[in-house]
Amino acid sequence: MNDRRTAGATAPSLLVVDDDEVFRTRLARAFRDRGYDVRAAGGYDEALARAREDSPEMAIVDLRMPGPSGLELVRDLKALDPSTRILVLTGYGSIATAIEAVRIGATYYLQKPADVDDILAAFARGEAPPLDPPTSDYTAPSLARAEWEHISRVLSDCGGSVSEAARRLGLHRRSLQRKLQKYPPRS
Fold it and tell me: Which CATH class is domain 13-125?
């Protein structure tokens, strides 16, 4: 592993954004111990304020936070400074959100739990595809599964409000309720 504290080398600035204070603090400390210039934020507003003060070279963004999502933060951090390399971390991974994160500017996408070595390896891969190449026994998720994941994500983003989720999805509330009564389809 490349030690960032070698003579003459300056470690990049890093912004860690996660609403879980314990995780955020531990991750920030682990990066500081490796010589990184770390700033931490608990949500969208605080992260954007810190980035406006001094744009980070790298950012680690949690996907799901109260208020605006991590995807919105990725988009706005990239608008602020297109050279910022951003890694999205989430405990709620799906292919659709991984693709969306990379499409709007994330360098990589990792599922939690991820440690500092996993994160550094992901940044080192740079612009490589965010997903492992399919293996011979890989099967793509069914369309029904992808639809169910999307509906679940939108419902979660709406705080469980079926009416608001139906509005955002362009469905009638009763149609959405019927879809929600079904168990998630198998991949």
Answer: alpha beta
